[in-house]
Amino acid sequence: MITFNINGKKVQGQEGWTILEVARWHGIDIPTLCHHEALEPYGACRLCVVEVDEGKRSRVVISCMYPIRSGIKVQTDAPRVANVRRWIVQLLLDESPGAPQIQELAKTFGVTPSRFKKTEVDFACHLCGLCVRTCQEVVGAQALTFGNRGLRKEIATPYHQRSTDCIRCGTCLYVCPTGAMEQLFPQVSAP
Amino acid sequence: MKTESQIGIFLCECGGKISNRIDLPQVDELLQYESCHLEVYPYPCLAPGLEAMRREVQAKGLNRILVGGCSSRVMKKKFTKALAPVGIEKHQVEMINLKDHVAAVHEATPQELARKAAALLAGGLASLRLLEPYEPVPLTFEGPALILGGGVSGFAAARELARQGMESVLFSKAQTPERVLDELHWTFPGCRIFCGDLGELLREVFTSPLVRVMPDQPIEYIIGGVGDYRVGLKQSDNSVTEVAGAAIITALDREFGPGNIAYIGGGERVCDLLDFEEKIGAGDISPGKVVFWVNSPQHGQAAQELAAVAAWRDSLLLARGHFQVSPTVLYPANAVLPLTGADLMEARAQGIGLQSYVPEVHPVVQSGFLSFVSPADNLEHEVEWDTLVVPGAPAEPAAKAQELIRWLPIYPENGGRLQKSHIKFWPDQIPDESLFFTGSAGGICDLNEVLQQGKKAARGVLHLREKALQGRLVSPVVVHVDKDLCEGCGLCTEICPCGGIEHVKPGSGPVPRETDNHLCSGGGTCAATCPHEAIKVVNNTAQQLEARVKAILARMEDHEILSFICGWGGAASAEQAAVKGLTYPSGIYLVPVNCLGSLDPSILSMAFLNGAKGIMLAGCTPTHSCHYHYGVDHCWYRVSAMKKLLSLAGLERRRIAMGYVEVNEPEAFVRMVESHLDTLGKLPPLPQDDKTKARLWAIHATMHHPRVRWVLGTSLRRPNEKEFPGSQSNAVETDEIMLEVLKEEFLAAKILKALSEQPLNPPGIAKVIEEKVELVSSLLTDMAKEGRITLKCWEGGYPTYVPGKAQRLH
């Protein structure tokens, strides 16, 4: 048993559990975007950051992947954490201003679009990769993948052809947090 | 296991998404008479929750788990994986989607939703109580691999098997390597250039002691399953010899027929690729300019590309063979030639012309010249020819493969392309691949690719053998046929789309069916169609569904309705509605089934008998998107029969309705629900008087009757359907035949119901069921003959009857 501290509350957990899991079990909410209970943690959105005080120093880490350790003190809403989150939301908002989930987060954190915001975006996908990972880990069909890199990164099928590997189970639609998959689905799946 | 069920219910709060909408403590209260163990966790699906579940399983000795949370499709895998260490197997875990079917989609109060949640959970409990012990069957895998079809890929498969020390029996028209090579151009034009390598492969196969090459004989039957196949071969004297094997590889190639040269004329100077290759083989090539013209766009782009590559390879052969000819390949610009830089350099060095033409402007043949438009400059150019060669026409492989298609789950697609059963599974739903189909009959491709396919198929067989040697080759029992109930009518084999129900020898009479669970998709259409109810999908039986529906109905209110949703289009769109934040009234209780085709007709009648006000069914769009080929079409006939019976009983036909949704159409699903609730809102609840009850009982008995089930099962035999889907001959007459059968059986069922209460004579029966005496007495004679009723005594000049022993009363 590992005993540690979240927001001043003493909690216990087992080796291998993450901060996010223990916090949620104890009813402490940490915002996430790219996390889904059915999937392995991925650490893409960095929104689940928390401050971990390890005694000598404190660090801001992502809670979805950080394994719990004895004696650490975790702060889920420290000013430092809120600052990092605000910046992340700012960048996400500029990257995909159409995503309703991000608009909501922006409202919570009081973030407005900056001068770097993308203007010609009608697609709400913010590349959390939930669809790709679900298709691989849960379904096992591996019909979806990431295409390109960097600015041109996208959700696609191999050769941009409607995939015959797709079994049309709709799991990608279910996990998509923004509804972007719904627009993409007809291009992805062969009937 | 049946007697000692210890069920644990774990409800998820989902961070408030469920607990804020559903009063979970009240759910606990509503379920407290169900004698099970209930826990509410903030997140059962995260590591602390899973650990808590494991602890409960061990502390309370639970052997069945019911999770009230979110989508089973997404989350079930995680629970089964986490609970495996404490001895909970996959089939012992069941999930009820409280989040997407209740919490997120309704605007009712938390107390109201708690009642609905409790009903759905009670249904899950009822179903879990009927679980049976599950024992996969170990399979033996002895004997050779049988390579049927005579395709070239079969040789590659045989070589790979022989190299790995496995025996094979190969059926081939050609009995020597030379003969195979001589005939190669009929199936693989342009592959003469590989004859050297292929020759080596063939010699290895023909000389190998592990490969028995047998002449291609007509196939009388293919029976058995993985590990134990038997193929009957018809001999010239009409006797049948049997060859046994552990696995079957079907190697089928598409043949090419004479090319379209009649419109060109030109006599000897114009020929097709097949004839030309025969001439190359004979060394009989007249010197001069040879133009390979890839024409005939009607065969499709794949065929054109193959022809262009074939022409390129033949040109190379000509150039290397010093035939004193200068070849040119003229191909349409939209065909992509897979040539490398080295190939192009060789073409230049050998003087082979590679020229594309604009496909929109068809080249014009003149004497000695062919004019075409070049895509480079849009100008018309001319190319000189002494010999003009056009490709052969690809033949439809389906005709050649008729005898194989009949026995193996391989189906002709549009355009004659053969394909394995195109049921779309979750990849972990099926065990190891055991149906091996290779060759260009599955799609136009060249020799190299086909040989690769053969090798891959052989690896698949070797994988199965490897597993068998380690004792790990087990057949997951999906479908079970009760040999005592089965009468061997063969309807299940006829409608099974996946090849899971095995064939029997022709002419062997009514033999109980066996299942090959390596091929079975668990669609369950066979089980719901079986006239004698002899088939069950293990741990997903009609009895379980019946118990679930009964438990839910017991907790439903009069105005609420029941809905069956299929596991693909229906379930996905229902969950998608929740994700999108759509809402609909809470008076509809969703019961997921695998496919609507697996919904037994008696479940529908049973629901009405148990007081359902109405039923809605949501499945995939018929035929093209049903994951089990025709599951949804089979269900349509059951619904149609249900409607007919309802109106025969004097009830409204519109109480039951079917709808079709795709996975990405949540709005359509919500519209369906609202519309059907609206329709039923205008109808009163089902009357609860004895007369209606008796009629509903009669409907239920009718749906169980083998004759009715047989008619329902054969409804999809539509000989005219080749013309267009749904095309029927004499639709009205066909439907009236069904109506007649239903009328008669419904009347018989009503008579039985009346007799089961007291012995009666014909006028007495007619009075009770309110029918004409003549109608009743004529049917009574038949029923007495069938043993469904027996004569008790004669009283007052009339016979008095009681239910017979032959009648099963449900």
Instruction: State the CATH topology of the domain at 2-75 in chain A.
Output: Ubiquitin-like (UB roll)
The outline of chain A comes out as globular
Biggest interface in this structure? A-B, 34 and 33 residues
In the CATH hierarchy, the third-tier topology of the domain at 145-255 and 396-475 in chain B is known as: FAD/NAD(P)-binding domain
What is the straight-line distance between the termini of chain A? 51 Å
Alpha-beta classification of chain A: alpha+beta
Integer average pLDDT of chain A:
90
Q: What is the class of the domain at 2-75 in chain A in the CATH system? A: Alpha Beta
* Largest sheet entry of chain B: 5 strands, parallel
Low-confidence runs of at least 5 consecutive residues of chain B: none
Helix content of chain A: 25-40%
Mean of pLDDT of chain B: 90
What series of H and E elements makes up the topology of chain A? EEHEEEHHHEEHH
CATH-level-2 architecture of the domain at 145-255 and 396-475 in chain B: 3-Layer(bba) Sandwich
How many β-strand stretches of chain B? 34
Strand arrangement, major sheet of chain B: 8-7-6-12-25
Tally of contiguous helical segments of chain B:
27
Principal-axes geometry of chain B comes out as elongated
Explained architecture:
The complex is a heterodimer of chains A (191) and B (810). Chain A is α+β, with helices and mostly antiparallel strands. Among the domains of chain A are: 2-75, Ubiquitin-like (UB roll) (Roll); 130-188, Alpha-Beta Plaits. Chain A has helices at residues 19-25, 79-95, 100-109, 130-139, 171-175, 180-188; strands spanning 2-6, 9-13, 49-53, 58-62, 73-75, 145-147, 154-156. A 5-stranded mixed β-sheet of chain A has the order 2-1-5-3-4, sandwiched between helices. A two-stranded antiparallel sheet of chain A has the order 6-7. In chain A, β3 and β4 (58-62) form a beta hairpin. The radius of gyration of chain A is 18 Å and the shape is globular. The model of chain A has no long low-confidence stretch (mean pLDDT 90). Chain B is of the alpha/beta class. Chain A binds chain B through residues 13-14, 16-18, 21-22, 24-27, 29, 36-38, 134, 138-141, 167-171, 173-176, 179, 182, 185-186, 191, and chain B through 15, 41-43, 45-49, 51, 71, 73-75, 77-78, 424-428, 568, 572-573, 575-576, 579-580, 624-625, 627, 663-664.
